[in-house]
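Shape matters. Shown next:

___
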Amino acid sequence: MKVEEEGISLRGTVLDPLIEKKEIKYREIILNQTISQKKACNEINNSKYSIFTFFPFVLFYQFQHFFNLYFLGLTITQFIPALEVGFIINYVGPLSIVLCLSMFKEAYDDILRHSRDRQINNQLYQILTIEGLMNKKSGNLQVGQIVQVNKDERIPADLLILRTDDKDGNAFIRTDQLDGETDWKLRKSVKLTQNMDDNQLTSVSGLIQFEEPHQNINSFKGLVQINEMDGKQLRESTSLENVVWANSVLAVGQIYGIVIYNGNEAKMMMNQRKAQTKKGIFDVEVDKLSKLSFFIMIVLAVIITLFSSPPRDFKYVLQMYMRYLILVSNIIPISMRVNLEFAKIVYSVRINRDTKIEGTITRNSNIPESLGRISYLLSDKTGTLTQNEMIFKRFSLENEKYTIEQEDLTKIKQILYDQFKYPNEKSGKMRDFFTCLSVCHHVTPVDDEYGNRTYQAQSPDEIALIKFAAQQGFYILSRDDKEIIIHIEQKELKIKERYQILNSFPFSSENKRMGIVLKNNQNQIHFYVKGADVVLKQLLPEKYSSYIDEETENLARVGLRTLVLAHKKLSQKEYEDWNEKYIKAAQLIEKREQEMQKLIEQLEKQLEFIGITGVEDKLQDDVSHTIENLKNAGINVWMLTGDKMETAICIAILSGLKHATQNFIIMKDVIDEIQMSLILQNLEANSNNVLVIDGTSLQEALHGFEQQFMKAAMNCPSVICCRCCPTQKAIVTELLKKYSGLVVAAVGDGGNDVGMIQSSDVGIGIEGKEGKQAALASDFSILKFNSLNLLLLWHGRLSYKRSSLLSQFILHRGLLIATVQTIFMFLFYFLSISLFSGFLMFGYSTIFTMFPVFCIIYDEDVKQEIAMRFPPLYKSIQQGRLLNTKTFLIWIWKAVFQGFIIMICSILLIKQAFLRLETTVFTCLIFTQYAMTLTELESLHIYMILSNLLSVLIYLMTLLLFPEQLLVQDTIDVPFFGWVILILLMSWLPLYILRRILKSVDPSDYEKLMDQVQRETINTN
């Protein structure tokens, strides 16, 4: 087969009469001619690096971080003799550790990517050639080759289906790895090639023309031309139903498909985007404090330089400034990033392993602290707050209403029996209703090897309707793309109905309806339609509009999802005239969908009303309790749904989004600017109203009243946006982030929630009936809505609280040694040398103090059950009061006080050699860190005790075993430890006492709440 690689003009081809005058470029495959070797292969390459690019690329990415670049600069200065202030290892060591850890992580991740790529690329498939079937690696498949794919095999490239083992040319695929949807999807072979055998497929003359590759997985246009021996040309247009995309899986049977796109042009690869890197609010705050530390360091170096000596030449002053700057550079600890990265990993692992929220997965380990700072939670309704398990509850015919109560069911069965037994004497409304339920759908019954029947459908609503129809005696025996066979049982009556499928129009989010044209046993042609009330009432006679509005609102008020059913009869001539036009439109390449939709709309004229269905989608377990907890925690919960306003209002009441003391303010179809302005002013004036707004009003509000609307909405205890599309969900999320300046989370379960989830600061996906698309796009995935209780109020709160304390301890550690170094320089004639030897400096932020400081991540101020009982504990830290400029200044004060006491007392008490001063001061610094870790925490857990004991042992053993290397020989004795203990008490005890006094005299809001929690806990016990 010959593959024309370049785009071609369709002028003069079989498409010439079907397109407009403008030149359009399409691709072409000439069947059964030599394949061009120029065409790219099908290798998958998800790796970031190769052997040659790993080191330069990783180093480049690492030094894009300002502070890595900063420490690199400091390290380079130590190779300049005039700026050297200590051992090179003091600077090279920590930077090397950071870089090596980052490289190891990158290398490990990329090795896994390479391994997965090799596994996929080396998977063997069979291609059909003139010589028969030949093995071919997936990575070597080329455009134009015919590939055999068997049951449960991955589709290796984008294929146009030429033949299936099903006599009707049907094939079912699973696309959960492509779009996250778990239902099976029906695909069809090209009719012109379905009945060809292997020899014909490899010898047939013809061509395939199709559009250039693009990202849209829901669109495909093409045309197949087969040249017969007599010179006659047969043409067939192809669409999405004739192709299978790479990385989907064949669910049943066997197919032969010709490769149309491969490698980077396959849909899967074109839709692969690097996940948007979200930077958590905690990391932003740490960066601010680090930059403030950098500023302090610069100012401090300037001050030391000014006091050091009278002004000299610029070169000397600059040299001394750089030396002082390097000496106080410990203010910015290089270990900060490593410690916080490890902490994030620990938080993520603990979330993943929590058996109480089993199935929860951390997909973005960069932002666990943000879970403790959420102020707004935007939630989908169906499948998120509700179970997405549909149960048929009610239906209405014209002026007749029925429930699933036994009395109504008995009445329904009798009416159906009468209408089937006496078809000429009785009205057929009930019969038409159940016939529509049984045939107007895209449900496929599937029997497993044990004879158990299940249903495959894209919507659980359709399965609920089918099951209810079966309960009333309407059983689907089989359904394919050609016919539907229904078995009807009404008492002694047994009827088998065959419906030939003439045309089928699938449901889409744009059309909000589906339709099907059928021919029954009596050769009567019927057109059945079902869809949203807002759409169907426009297609039905005006006399039904008020009834549809009233009845759908009644059903929605009790939380039911509604669909309107309609139909009409067609004469043979009417249908043939219409179908002739439809076939011509289906053969178009350009504007095919628009022309086909125009003809469908012509068919939808003069429909007759059948009835309205009401299906219940129950709330998930503990939804109302979870929402109550979240609201008590200070989280404002909004609901964004595409469902009806009345249904959304009902769910809002049942779930507790609206409190009994609150009122609804409803904005429905508000497009008048004056009316919009008045409503928004009312909202701003009254903060106890829940806003309910539909998609039309939301569009108007965001168009001309964006700032006023968002300000008014944020003033409400809750907001319910209904009838809103996925784009509107994402826009609301972005605007809420923009105008509130707070952390916004979003939770959803469907593909229509992906935009909202990705736009939020924290995206939470639920793996549900609609598939995994939302979960795969999220930062955290859960199985149930009530998992948010533990995820936010426990894990989120602790992650933020622990990291806040950890980061400030690390900053304090750097500030403390920088303070001591500064005082040393002021007291010793501004010597630009380090007070401490090289190994001591290296060990200060690593082996001597790292274990106690890192064990801060296991600190717990309350037990889990207490955190769940008192959601306001979350609110007390929600505004970021544990890590801000105020707390940073407090820790600066602590460092300056302790550094001053340690340095001055060491000089006054130990009036001996410099080496003894060095060892004493350093030992006091180390033990001050140990004391601070033991007393600043909320709980003294076993990890902290053991880590302190281990660290003390490591330090003492280091001093005793390597005195000469550390320059501390003849300085370690009993009086030495006595002085160390005394200085330690003088530097640590005043702060501890002051902290206890302030907590008693002027406790913070958090401390007041903790006292209340402890009192209530004691009283309860």
Q: What stands out?
A: The longest strand covers residues 493-505.
